[in-house]
# Entry
Amino acid sequence: MTKLDLATDKMIAEKADGIGWMTFNNPARRNAIGFAMREAILEIIDDFNNDPDVRVIVMQGAGDKAFVSCSDISEFAERRATPEQREVYDALSSKVNEAYNSIEKPLIAMIRGFCMGGGLGTALQADLRIAAEGSEFGIPAAKLSIGYPFHNMKKLIDLVGPAKTKEIMFTARRFSAAEALAMGLINQLVPADKLEESVQELAATIAENAPLTIRSAKTIVGEAARDPADRNLALCHEQVEACMNSADYAEGRTAFMEKRKPNFVGK
# Structure
């Protein structure tokens, strides 16, 4: 296990067996994300994204109460009191969103407890969401008269559809994990005591597969969600061709013929 040296102890980053683990470590505030945590998230994503030994990234919340609750409101008086402070804070938040969008590797959200508001927004950054029984989901914006930005709403609409998005936003209520599974908000629902084991198994399975194939699949799914005029079909073609011209493709064919597990290296 390799651990990154970060400027804050409220984020933890560890790497082992092809998996990068990013932990929101602020359990006293239900893992609410503060300014220093956002800075650390940028550093973690950059490291994991550029480390060829990291095949899959898992993000989780410390403790058993919450995945992520929201932004750390206790900092707002210091960090968001003036227009200048809000500009700096919002610029950092935008950088974090861009960093999530730049990840070419599979990102899994391991969810336990509350996953509300900004926490659900963070979970929506993931490619896959695995939740423990007893988890709760929701966006309470309508209880606070908060407007939700288009790009955040678009991710929710793409995932659960317009009708369920309206239900989530209009009611501002908490949804059970079973409801979240039924609407497609999460991929899997597992017993609480099996959550880490289930995520570990899923991440390990993905890590064994061909990185170039996974990269191309993630890219194409992302481009398909864009408006047709904005799609980068050249990039999609380029990444598919990279798979077919790779040493991993030769290794996959050879391993299949030899009836053994392939050893993919991402090249």
